[in-house]
Amino acid sequence: MSIRIGVITFPGSLDDRDAQRAVRIAGAEPVALWHGSHDLEGVDALVLPGGFSYGDYLRSGAIAALSPIMSEVKDAAAKGVPVLGICNGFQMLVEAHLLPGGLIRNDHQHFVRRDQRLTVENASTAWTNAFEKGQEIIIPLKNGEGGYIAADDTLDRLEGEGLVAFRYAGVNPNGSLRDIAGLTNERGNVVGLMPHPEHATEPGFGPDTAQAMRSGVDGLGFFASAIAAVTAVAA
Q1: Catalytic one of 121, 145, 198, 202
Q2: CA distance 196 to 188
Q3: What is the reported pTM?
């Protein structure tokens, strides 16, 4: 069975080609989708990539969340299709109310770019099942508006229901409340995070590790997880 993962390009997307390459390296078929279309082309999973959709006007991800294809994304998510939002894609997911809370300017008011340590808090989602709970991974991070915020009762619910997917380890790079780096929905098919797993899928081009420079490929686990989740449903 050939797993087909759609990557949606919005005006201002920067990492759509990188996400397509990551899908291919993981062993699935990438399918390029356009924000103005209403056709998901029968894909098995979806990626909303990073970038600066619509120039990040109003709020990051706010205009993209109203793009024509997002109505199909919402319908697909409701049916259990795996959806991953990366950086700007995570911002789209919260703006589209597929995940709770919001993302604001980094607390230090500067763009940040670093190889970021993360702790996997939930390893049972469609995008994290290749990991183990408590596992530490290294994923590149690059954002100017990555500070996660939510009301205290929402934060308590996220913690209590195990909906925090990833937490920043070692350092909080943007002031996110409770060190939250990524979330999942209750069903576990929608995941959003600020770091960029598509930039950690190929030796020689990933983050530095204790073993060697540019050797980190922890990002492959995200796409391998989606392939496994889709395969399990189809079996």
Answers
A1: 198
A2: 19
A3: 0.96
